[in-house]
Please model this.
Amino acid sequence: MTKYVSKQPNAEGLIEWTSDEDSTWSTLIERQTEIVKTRASKEFLEGLERIQFSRKNVPQHHVINQRLKNFTGWQVEIVPALIPAKEFFTLLANKKFPAASFIRIPEELDYIQEPDIFHEFYGHVPLLTFKEYANFMEEFGKLALNAAPKDRSRLFRIFWFTIEFGLLNTSQGVRAYGGGMLSSIHETVYSVESSVPKRLPFDTLNALRTPYRIDIPQPLYYVLNRFEDIYGILDQDIMGLLQKSKELGDFEPLFEPAPSSEL
Ligand SMILES: [Fe+2]
Model:
């Protein structure tokens, strides 16, 4: 359930953002771009340079698409605030990144549970200019479509601990590449600098066995050694690992239970 509704494009295919919505975008991008400078992976920062988001207005989907086309051919697609899992994975499998056309209200500037356009554009589009990340998204969409629907939430843990909340080892220490933390002013800092969360080397089987909650700062992050390694994750026998993860069972959650805690 969400109180947000995506805005529909007008006859010219443009979303008519209000000045208040543009102002929210402007505030978010100005402050986040300062925060990520010393905490995001160099690929993310390079992706920001490639995409050149407007600092003043919520970007139009077609502008983003024009820029993405030159790098990986991916496109962002206007979707409702929440879409069924099958539709989400179908879009990914077709090199289309679902991006809901609504932006958070000022009261939720610092934290929003629903993925709004700031999360989708700022958190994911810069890295969609890199083929390893884009190829991972596409392959993940295909894998999830081929999986039994009952297995998709477990499979999504791989996506969660990479695309949404992945960390990377670098010579300067850990850096963030997950869109979940990089679109959050608090979790960008917390994920990289706090001594509270655990940081473990990424391991696909372990990720498949790790439950998570979407509404709290993550108690555990998995860390890749190289950005390029993301695509290699799916070179493994994922469905075999999924089966093994079910046989071995989940790790003890590092959080209190919450209802509906997964996709
Ligand atoms: Fe996301």
